[in-house]
Design goal:
single chain; about 800 residues; alpha/beta; Rossmann fold; 6 domains; 27 helices; about 40% helix; elongated
């Protein structure tokens, strides 16, 4: 920016609420490119979001110490004053709150920008009217435009916290005082939002959003709100009128008081200001009140200055340049800032001087002391950074960076703990955004940003939990102590609300008080729910008694209605007829309603059992059929009791079945296999889950296989699988292997089974060998060739049945019927 002649300069001066920043944003957006420097990261972020909405995020950049969003085609830049890229040429440049040139800590930065930055086509300086004489002296070519305040600002006197009007901001000047005021407002008025300069933009925005949305009526803040942050504040109350400025405790200047008080009122709406104390050092004097109301303040007669482009040829030359005295009237040497104090401490270390690289040393000293440790501890941290930047590959080790990020990545703790982590995280975010300090800066920028996001969200939650009691606010507004007067409503997700504030949830028929409700609130919340939810529960009872099948589900033994448990299956007279035990939450329904619900659920279970496990229901009927042969009934009983899947050895009566009985079982859908009896349909996932639920009602534990599995490693027995060696094989595939082996043999002659089938199923050679032995085959030596097997046979005792007797009862006729499998 310093490489071309300065463009026309306009100084727009005036009190707060004159639209200065809004004007600068409009002017910048009218140029092909532009840049604005702000005093706060929070303000830069707020304007960045606004310009992104106008120009799109691919053309707008945000540059602060800890955050750098610079798209390749960026044309408009929103920056903190310290982070303005002075080597970038843009059409428009503006500096906001330029009167901060008189600030002892940061004033030299703003003075440097006043003197050095310039847009190609237009330059704008924004600030207080107090800056006018200094601009006349330092930038005589600037055209000064004074703007009046849009609305009236008037003194409203002193008011206690308990008497402050709604939409008030209370300003305090230390974190301890902010927390104390916010805690008092939580007790008195239900809570307050909190805004401090140390908050991340994400936390600050979340807190302001609560205030803007009317979720809380009060805002407690530090003097950070005086720097142009836009909030809908009607009244500003000062908790005190003194602050520690880094060197001493002092009373605010009238200009500082006005800068903060001016946040009251917005656009055309008038605002008021006052104090919490009528007398003493915390009270306004009449002279101060008049000056603030009439916007009359002592003009600035000096600004702080420090060389903006110091000599980097040596450490001594750098220090000398930074300590040089200004040669222009109205400029004073800046007090020693933290970066210079750190530089001078490191300059005393021989190893620092030996390394040279003064440019990198000065860049490292620019790392802000976010943790407020002081020059001595902070210089040790900066020294370590400089050491890494001047050895090896010249980068901060990623392992150190990662370890520090991981150490800070903890959202547990109170407000102070998480705020301290954010302060520490800001140092690492700053490091990550120095492109030449890390080997993979983009990766670490993302990690640092993700860390700040998590910590910011956690801090917002802690601030809200500590200083806001929305439920109490609603209760106080609505009822006092009369629970019957509560305006209780139920949201679409079952949330139970009082004036849109959740007090608990109604899940199915069960009301649960919000977990974060204080013990003193629980009694009144439960009473409110008892009085106002009876009608809703009755309505839900009627709906459940008439519910469609699609709204019901079974999870384990739990019957669910729209995802909420309403009953459980327990053991009944038969496996397919479990009992329905209603959830205790339904006890609040009257008896007819409960009976109607139980009947509907039982009907659904019965219909789903017929649909998903048809053979089980038919097995139950077969057991009760007096015309069925005894062996068949006994087999059906054993198989039904096992849920349609049983080892053949566990059903001894199956060996006594004649061909007609076996044919009947096949018509039911039952496979009488070599090793197992089973209904193949029960191996499908939905049917298997239903069978598991029916068995679970009898406290029989069933482990379902993964969907689509045919072979599994040994371990917990899986439903529908047979353990063979180190594997478990699905029973229908075991039977398929058995059928293939029997089809391949010719009497008792040795044969080689086709290995392709076993391989396609996933059965190992060892498992196949063990299965062949179990099926009744013996291994036959075959030299070097593939293993051969011969039929050994196995005892299969069958009772002798005379041929005529097989057709001697009415049941035998059933064998000729086509019963189907549905």
């Amino acid at each position: 920016m310093a490489s071309f002649a300065r463009s026309p300069i306009t100084a727009v001066l005036g009190p707060t609420n004159t639209g200065k920043t809004h004007l600068a944003v409009e002017r910048m957006c009218g140029h092909s490119s532009g840049m604005i420097g702000f005093p706060l990261r929070l303000l830069a972020r707020e304007v960045y979001d606004r310009v992104v909405r106008l120009k799109g995020n691919h053309q707008v950049a945000l540059i602060t110490g800890e955050e750098r969003i610079v798209p390749p085609g960026a044309r408009w830049f929103l920056c903190t004053a310290e982070s303005m890229p002075l080597d970038r040429e843009v059409g428009f440049v503006a500096l906001d709150e330029a009167q901060l040139g008189a600030d002892p800590e940061r004033g030299h930065v703003f003075t440097d920008r006043i003197l050095r930055v310039s847009g190609r086509d237009e330059t704008m300086i924004l600030g207080s009217e107090t800056l006018k004489p200094m601009l006349r002296s330092l930038v005589p070519e600037a055209e000064v435009i004074e703007r009046p305040r849009f609305s009236t600002l008037s003194y409203a006197g002193a008011k206690k916290l308990s008497r402050l009007p709604k939409r008030s901001a209370i300003v305090a000047f230390s974190a301890e005082e902010v927390y104390a005021v916010a805690e008092a407002l939580r007790r008195l008025r239900g809570g307050a939002a909190v805004v401090m300069g140390a908050l991340s933009p994400r936390t600050r925005n979340a807190q302001v959003a609560m205030f803007q949305a009317g979720e809380v009526d009060y805002l407690v803040a530090t003097d950070a709100i005086g720097m142009g942050l836009n909030m809908d504040v009607a009244h500003v109350a000062f908790a005190s009128l003194s602050k520690f400025d880094g060197r001493r405790q002092r009373r605010l200047t009238v200009s500082e008081m006005a800068q903060i008080a001016g946040r009251a009122g917005r656009h055309q709406r008038d605002g008021t200001f006052g104090a919490l104390h009528e007398e003493g050092p915390g009270a306004f004097t009449p002279e101060e009140v008049r000056a603030i109301e009439e916007h009359r303040f002592p003009p600035l007669d000096f600004l702080y200055w420090r060389e903006g482009e110091p000599d980097l040829s040596s450490v001594d030359a750098l220090i000398a340049g930074l300590e040089a005295k200004p040669d222009r009237p109205g400029l004073r040497p800046a007090p020693e800032a933290v970066d210079l104090a750190v530089l001078k401490r490191l300059a005393d270390e021989p190893w620092v001087r030996e390394r040279g690289r003064v440019d990198r040393l000065w860049a490292a000293c620019g790392l802000p002391d976010f943790r407020k440790l002081g020059p001595e501890p902070h210089s040790r941290f900066v020294g370590r950074i400089f050491q890494h930047l001047t050895e090896g590959d010249g980068h901060v080790p990623h392992r150190w960076f990662a370890e520090e990020i991981a150490r800070l990545d903890n959202v547990a703790g109170d407000v102070e703990t998480i705020a301290a982590r954010i302060a520490a995280a800001r140092s690492w975010a700053y490091i990550a955004h120095r492109a030449d300090w890390l080997a993979e800066p983009l990766h670490w920028q993302e990690r640092a940003q993700a860390l700040e996001t998590r910590l910011s969200d956690a801090l917002h939650d802690r601030l809200t939990q500590r200083f806001v009691d929305k439920r109490t606010t609603a209760l106080l507004r609505s009822i006092g102590a009369d629970a019957s007067a509560l305006p209780v409503t139920i949201g679409p997700e079952g949330e139970v609300l009082v004036e849109d504030h959740p007090i608990g949830r109604l899940e199915g028929f069960r009301f649960t008080v919000a977990a974060d409700a204080r013990a003193t609130d629980k009694r009144i919340l439960l009473a409110a729910a008892e009085k106002r939810l009876g009608g809703e529960l009755a309505k839900r009872g009627r709906a459940l008694a008439e519910v469609s099948d699609a709204a019901l589900a079974l999870e384990g033994t739990a019957l669910l209605w729209n995802g909420n448990e309403v009953a459980r299956l327990t053991a009944g007279p038969e496996l397919t007829r479990p009992r329905i035990r209603l959830d205790r939450a339904l006890d609040r329904l009257d008896k007819p309603a409960r009976e109607a619900v139980a009947a509907r659920l039982a009907q659904w279970v019965e219909s789903e059992t017929r649909r998903l496990t048809p053979a089980l229901a038919r097995l139950d009927r077969l057991v009760r059929d007096p015309d069925a042969p005894g062996a068949l009934r006994a087999t059906a009983a054993a198989l039904a009791d096992a849920g349609g899947l049983a080892e053949r050895t566990a059903v001894p009566d199956v060996e006594a079945l004649d061909p007609i009985a076996r044919k009947f079982l096949r018509k039911l859908g039952i496979t009488v296999g070599t090793l197992d009896l089973f209904d193949p349909r029960l191996l499908k996932p939905t049917a298997a889950a239903w069978r598991a639920a029916l068995l679970g009602a009898r406290d029989v534990a069933v482990t379902l296989p993964p969907p689509g599995a045919s072979v599994a490693r040994g371990g917990t027995p899986l439903a529908g699988f047979r353990r063979v060696g180190s594997q478990q094989v699905r029973v229908d595939l075991v039977e398929r292997l058995a059928r293939a082996a029997h089809d391949a043999r010719a009497g008792r002659k040795p044969f080689v089974p086709d290995p392709a089938l076993a391989t396609s199923i996933g059965v190992t050679p060892d498992t196949l060998a063990k299965l062949m032995a179990r099926l009744g085959f013996r291994s036959v030596a075959n030299g070097e060739g593939p293993p051969q097997w011969a039929w050994r046979g196995r005892p299969q005792p069958r009772p002798k049945v005379d041929a005529p007797s097989r057709r001697s009862n009415a049941f035998a006729a059933l064998a000729d019927l086509d019963l189907g499998h549905g």
